[in-house]
Amino acid sequence: MGGSSYYGKIWTDHRVLPCQAKSPGDKFGIVQVMQDIALCQERYPSAICKPIALQFTSENDVAILELAIREKDETLKLNIVEEKRYELVPRSQISDAELRVLMESEL
């Protein structure tokens, strides 16, 4: 398995996460994602490339998207593989108990 390491019963794969960030109303372009993927393949050939994008939807809201290029009807399309939305809040507005619950839910 190229780019992987084995620790006990867990395989770890090396990943590269090229990232774009856009302001509200801006759109992601397929050309930039294709360039990001090409760079990953050239510089990190044994790593898994996972292009991601951050889309700010307001001052305190952000969506994190995993992107992929797919071919459909002989045309390349930019697809969203997965999307997660987050609200950015000051640390002072999150209790230690809430923070623990959030961290445990991510496991």
What does the model show?
The protein is of the alpha/beta class and 107 residues long. It has one domain (13-105). It has 2 helices and 8 strands. It has helices spanning 30-43, 96-105; strands at residues 4-7, 10-13, 15-16, 19-22, 48-49, 52-56, 61-72, 75-87. The protein is flat, with a radius of gyration of 17 Å. The two termini are 24 Å apart.
Helices and strands, in order, run as EEEEHEEEEH
- What composes the largest sheet? 4 strands, mixed
Would you tell me the overall average pLDDT?
88
Number of separate domains:
1
Strands of the biggest beta sheet: in what spatial order?
4-6-7-8
Number of helices: 2
Morphology call: flat
Helix content percent band: 10-25%
Radius of gyration: 17 Å
Give the low-pLDDT segments: none
| Beta-strand proportion | 35-45%
Oligomer: single chain
Total strand segments: 8
The secondary-structure class comes to alpha/beta
What is the straight-line distance between the termini?
24 Å
Labels describing this entry:
single chain; 107 residues; alpha/beta; 4-stranded mixed beta sheet; two-stranded antiparallel ribbon; 2 helices; 8 strands; flat
Write a concise synopsis of the structure shown.
This protein has 107 residues and is α/β, with parallel strands linked by helices. The protein is built from 2 helices and 8 strands, in the order E-E-E-E-H-E-E-E-E-H.
